[in-house]
Amino acid sequence: MSKQDKKFVLAMAQSSNERVTIKEIREKLNQPSNFIANYRRRLLDDRIIKATNYGEVAFTLPFFKEYILQQYRFEQKMDY
């Protein structure tokens, strides 16, 4: 995954919801809709995420959210 792909999935993982709205991701990343749409499409094509409803996405793999959050915490520790 690219750096931007990782930022997208981290924004999803940090949500308290299993289904995350594109609006929430856009606001967390502070990026325009066309930027978000590009990375959404890439992650959909790679089957990392799936569209659940209009304007919503979710992870396809069980426990992937937990994995992303654990990796983020680990990387934060290593950056000291």
Describe the protein's architecture and organization.
This protein is α+β, with helices and mostly antiparallel strands and 80 residues long. It has helices spanning 3-13, 22-29, 33-45, 64-78; strands spanning 20-21, 49-53, 56-59. A 3-stranded antiparallel β-sheet has the order 1-3-2. It starts with a helix and ends with a helix. The model has no long low-confidence stretch (mean pLDDT 94).
Summarize the structure in short.
The chain has 4 helices and 3 strands; from the N terminus they run αβααββα. The protein is α+β, with helices and mostly antiparallel strands and 80 residues long.
Which structural traits does this protein have?
three-stranded antiparallel β-sheet, 4 helices, 80 residues, globular, alpha+beta
How far apart are the termini?
24 Å
Q: What's the arrangement of strands in the largest beta sheet?
A: 1-3-2
- The strand count comes to 3
What would the average pLDDT be, to the nearest integer?
94
Strand proportion, as a percent range, falls in 5-15%
How large is the radius of gyration? 12 Å
User: Please, what is the oligomeric state?
Assistant: single chain
Topology overview:
Layout: H1 3-13, E1 20-21, H2 22-29, H3 33-45, E2 49-53, E3 56-59, H4 64-78
Antiparallel strand pairs: 1-3, 2-3
